[in-house]
DNA sequence: GTTCTAGAAC
DNA sequence: GTTCTAGAAC
């Protein structure tokens, strides 16, 4: 072990004796300045490794070229999926730079840090001397860069989410660490904690790791009661090493399954979550999401439920999850029971329950402090089923409390609402929190259903449960913080050692405390499920993505709400609220309404539309067909009555493509609309697919034409014919997606590189563009 | 929509 | 140090 190579090294490296179901993968985040030897460390470990490793290096992640952080995350996730362990080989000197990689942690995936904290002088001299460095950082300027970076250095801390941190401060430390990791067999597990840190002053905060059950509590008394306030945890590295390699810890890691099934075997196994009295177990009761009104396939749903439950239970002790349904004959309950038994899930931690979720305590004699609601996207009472029942029993106070937390909820996400104590659900049923969840809709009788797209549906349903459980955990975490604060204050005021606080705080009080510890929680927000593999939905749930309030942007509200009676609601809503447009967004509106004043730019004019060149073309050919109908500003305003206008505009666009193709037969075109237009007045983009233009300058430009932010005119016409309204996903995070070539789908770190690539890429455009006449070219379907 | 610019990343 | 992004202002 670095710093003290002999201590605990043998016990440090332990096999799991085949007890675990599968090998645990590792994410090892290297932390160090350029020249600290990160790549060499990876190479040395991988040369002698006893498990499969993948090195993810930002300098080469994009097909051998420098890539982006999100590409690194994608690449790391892919390696983990394959059961490989991953080195994150980038500087990672600041906490923020590490955070996204720490989020790769999940069941069967631990995240470690290896800090190559070598003398700055050494790093600099190595950086200056080297040649052919992947990151092109070498020679004279290296010294300055390394110095600057080291000034910002933030050494990693367990509270960031690492289960193990190894500090290396000299070559022999590095050698030891290389040995430790290279000897790690496929199912071996390294013990948790901080190793090799010389600085005794360094604070070690273990609260979060305890919460995540990733490390043992370093100190507990013989009675097994948690008597050590966080502030009293040993800061001395040696004592941490001793505690994490105790017999109890060995058992814990050797056979997690056995220990999960028995709280009594190892006192330290008891989680410190929430209620410190052991007679109450935090319990979340939840209905099956999406399988009633939204008609999600029961078998698939049962698989997802059990998988998500199983994942979650591996992380937490002293909690219970209960799936509730009204009828004994419930198919979903029996499917879940069957699958759960097959997966050997501890039935004391997860079980099904027949009864009314609003009367579990009084009628069912089942104490559940948190219940989930299968909510609608508007978070409104009414409708039917569980949602109506919960709002009815909880009374108006739940509506008010909900309004304080969120406006709307998108499928796949959830929001926690602390239940005021005056709610009957709180006083009678002892429920302190309701978590509203929205799942995917598979019911064709409802607008915007997923049309049997079970790939997307399963993804959304998984997200819904992950979000629900993570939010349940967040309640416990907040309560745990509250308890631990109280605990500390109790000890300091009375000096009675070992006192445990058994009172459960009033939820109003707790809500206030929560608001203090998490200011965003009570912020009124829309809650959107984020898309993109790099984001961990289960971690950030109450994320306000910066969308404008509903009354300022009808379009935004409309299509983000893609469920149930969203369309009707928006029609009503659209009548009373209109999006406001900035002065700069009025240009097309002005031209469309007064084309005679703009003869210099108008190339064609009819009663229905005008055609003009886009003032800032994003390709060789880029024209706009602008509707002249007043009040029709964007796709979200389009209804069946506009169908013929849309068709007329499409024909006009096609006419112009034919003219362009006569000039240059190699061009290919798409005709479509931006889901959220920047300029007022409905306008159709006719754009050649070369994207060869100096005006294409940023990510937003690219993604607005190369993600589902761009909707093909033909598809929209079809949708409006069928449903009377366009099915649009206006998630503006689409505009921030990684940059991918529209031909070969390769990812690129920035716009200049993407542009160099697309200038050369000879791959065909995706086959999907050949469907439904989305692509217009000189030789049809070519 | 663009332009400007601070600051992130290396 | 340079390159590039992303947010503010218009």
From TrEMBL:
Residues 337-624 form the Macro domain. Residues 481-557 are annotated as: Disordered. It comes from the Eukaryota. Residues 588-696 form the HIT domain. PROSITE patterns: HIT_1, HIT_2, MACRO. The keyword Zinc applies. GO terms for biological process: single strand break repair. Residues 490-507 have a biased composition (Polar residues). Keywords: Metal-binding, Zinc, Zinc-finger. GO terms for molecular function: DNA 5'-adenosine monophosphate hydrolase activity; double-stranded RNA binding; mismatched DNA binding; single-strand break-containing DNA binding; single-stranded DNA binding; zinc ion binding. This is Macro domain-containing protein. It comes from Zingiber officinale.
